[in-house]
Design a protein that fits this description.
The chain has about 270 residues and is an alpha/beta fold. The chain is built from 5 helices and 12 strands. The chain is elongated, with a radius of gyration of 38 Å. It has helices at about 1-50, 70-80, 90-100, 175-190, 230-245; strands spanning about 60-65, 105-110, 115-125, 125-130, 135-140, 145, 160, 200-205, 210-215, 220-225, 250-255, 265. Helix 5 links the parallel strand 10 and strand 11. The protein starts with a helix and ends in an 8-residue tail after the last strand.
Length: about 270
């Protein structure tokens, strides 16, 4: 019987020791939890204090890449008041605001701590002026990105024949049209030495291809839809021949949309013996 009572006492001691250890562990965990709460509160306070730290406020905005855009336009789009805390800003949102400007092709915005915002802009470069319901600048990707007048960009070719298609600012030309223009415009640039853009009043676009119109007498020159380099080279020879014979003033139409020849209409003198 004594042995049995000793066994009960031993079990009670073990149970009591286990309970004591459990209470001690719970107390430790409670202290840790309190410590974590205090630490979190301290970090939160430090974070919000850092957001409004005077030495982390924007007092300089560096903008690069401007060619046609005005700095004030970019600042208005950016919409960052002076002395704004830099850590309160999201560069992705700032970039979206600037990309909304029609003239902007791409932009990178970054924070140069402690007090500067850096904006790097790539502007859209106009390759021609397209006349739809209004005159619009056209970029290399086929996007119509801003209103303009031929007088503002005298070095750009005027593309006509697009009225009635509903094209407006922000639209992109069809891929097939853009592909032909991507061949035509470099060919015209290459021919500038003898066919300056100032001597062309317009490049008219229609289903049959491109027709150039000269400023002198509005002479139409049919080029078709392809092989513009080769056709313009032959056109140079045609002009030389007409000038040599003094027939240029009598020409009313030239069609270069042939493989190895040109069709010329006009009022020419009757050759003797004909």
């Amino acid at each position: 019987m004594k042995k049995k009572r000793n066994r009960y006492r031993s079990d009670r001691r073990r149970l009591k020791e286990a309970l004591r250890l459990w209470i001690k562990a719970a107390a430790c965990l409670g202290a840790t939890a309190v410590l974590l709460v205090l630490l979190s509160a301290g970090l939160s306070h430090s974070y919000y204090a850092l957001l409004d730290a005077p030495w982390l406020r924007a007092d300089e905005i560096d903008i690069s890449g401007l060619k046609h855009l005005d700095r004030d336009e970019v600042l208005d789009a950016l919409g960052v008041p002076k002395e704004t805390g830099l850590l309160n800003l999201r560069v992705s949102q700032l970039a979206l605001r600037i990309e909304a400007l029609p003239q902007v092709e791409s932009v990178v915005v970054r924070l140069d701590l402690p007090r500067r915002i850096v904006v790097e802009i790539v502007e859209r470069e106009p390759i021609a002026i397209l006349k739809a319901e209004e005159h619009l600048l056209l970029d290399r990707n086929g996007r119509l990105f801003a209103s303009a007048t031929p007088g503002q960009y005298p070095g750009l070719h005027l593309l006509t024949g697009f009225s009635g298609l509903g094209l407006t600012q922000g639209d992109v030309l069809p891929a097939e049209t853009l592909e032909s223009l991507a061949e035509l415009l470099p060919a015209l640039e290459k021919a500038k030495g003898w066919l300056p853009s100032l001597h062309l009043s317009e490049c008219r676009w229609h289903s049959g291809g491109v027709v150039l119109y000269g400023t002198s007498g509005s002479l139409p020159i049919q080029l078709g839809t392809e092989n513009f380099d080769e056709k313009l080279e032959r056109l140079q020879g045609v002009f030389k021949m007409l000038k040599d014979r003094r027939w240029l003033d009598g020409v009313t139409r030239i069609d270069m949309d042939y493989s190895n020849r040109a069709y010329i209409e006009g009022h020419f003198p009757v050759l003797k013996g004909s």
